[in-house]
Amino acid sequence: MKLETQVVVxxxxxxxxxxxxxxxxxxxxxMLFERGNLSEGTSGNFHGLLHSGGRYAVKDKPxxxxxxxxxxxxxxxxxxxxxxxxxxxxxxxxxxxxxxPIFLKGCAEVGIPTELLSGDEAxxxxxxxxxxxRHAVTVPDASIDGWDLCTGAVASAKEYGARTxxxxxxxxxxxxGDRVVGIKAVxxxxxxxxxxxxxxxxxxxxPWAGKTARLAGIEVPMVPNKGTMVVLDSRPVKRxxxxxxxxxxGDIIVPVGTTIxxxxxxxxxxxxxxxxxxxWEVDLMLDEGIKMVPMIEDMRLQRCFVAVRPLYxxxxxxxxxAEEGREVSRAFYVLDHEQLDGVGGFVTITGGKLTTSRxxxxxxxxxxxxxxxxxxxxxxxxxxxxxx
Length: 388
Ligand SMILES: Cc1cc2nc3c(=O)[nH]c(=O)nc-3n(C[C@H](O)[C@H](O)[C@H](O)COP(=O)(O)OP(=O)(O)OC[C@H]3O[C@@H](n4cnc5c(N)ncnc54)[C@H](O)[C@@H]3O)c2cc1C
Hints:
Layout lengths: L1 E9 L3 H12 L4 E4 L15 E2 L10 H17 L4 E2 L3 E6 L6 H12 L4 E4 H7 L7 E7 L2 E3 L1 H14 L3 E3 L4 E7 L2 E8 L6 E11 L5 H6 L10 E8 L7 E4 L8 E5 L2 E5 L3 E2 L10 H14 L8 E9 L6 H8 L2 E3 L3 E5 H5 L4 E6 L5 H16 L16
Parallel strand pairs: 1-2, 1-12, 2-9, 5-14, 12-21
Antiparallel strand pairs: 3-8, 4-8, 5-7, 6-7, 10-11, 11-12, 13-16, 13-17, 13-18, 14-15, 15-16, 19-20, 20-21
Helix pairs in contact: 1-5, 1-10, 2-3
The structure holds flavin-adenine dinucleotide.
């Protein structure tokens, strides 16, 4: 089947669905192709934390600013996907006390509201916390559902005329000389082939960004990084509990529905389609969780799951040359392949977090609009997603 549109979006995670919504809200005709179901990749298998930015407040201030700003926006536009749990950053007896003032200063500098509680005050609010908790700092963390966010964005985009094709992987990116002119996709249930001509193709395929770019004959160096999470069968805490220290493995507990989710690990892998959960990862998540909430030791492990972080790593020698064509953020990357590789009509958006997916979409759609000579501002932060 032959189709035509202005923009094709590849990938139905938080980023791709936000891109589709933004494009159509600015009046462009757009279609999204997803190889599985919506949020089937990282966005449906992540830790579930709507970041306040606290985790990045000391080491990565630009990322922290993005998180606190987007945290506020998503609460307004997607309340149906969010449970406003609040969060604690807890300091345990063995933790370095010197980190606490640095953390509080970092939060203040980027505008994250905090309150310092004693261990006893924190335990009055969260009785399951360890007696080893010396201090807790309150932050506006929350729990967020990837499926609700993605389906809400698609429902909104459809109101603006978008089309989506699920279980329809893009198998070729079509080029005419130095320009991408569309895609070929195959419906997995019917075998139907789609040849779609488009002015622009946006790859929003998260950890698969490297594989997708290769379909256009372009190299996007990714370092897929897996993280394992452990789900326990009840919910001893109401809030997100983070360890107040330099970010490392196993230092966050997120309440999700009737469960809590412990996570995560961070292990570089070769291929975002080839990985498994290892026993040491599960043991580490449990050991670290027990330090903050001792009753975890007696809880039943319900299941474990794993997802792959979309980490982009530009080759060092190419970094200076690439700078001009890459809208750099410590947190995410908009790769304009016209500037970087001399191939027009194609852009990759990758990296970042689910918390910043709306902002990522805004930046990439700004670029696509500029390249297409369209001057319509983003409105995705103003209009709520449809509910139901
Ligand atoms: C372990 C872990 C924990 C995390 N925890 C958090 C957290 O608590 N809070 C937070 O904000 N962020 C978190 N993140 C980061 C966040 O989950 C991701 O950054 C975000 O979900 C990425 O969304 P995406 O849409 O870019 O990618 P994805 O959600 O991976 O979407 C990409 C989509 O592209 C599709 N695709 C791939 N190839 C093709 C093709 N050829 N044709 C069609 N479709 C294709 C895939 O099926 C997939 O659905 C976590 C990440 C990991 C790995």
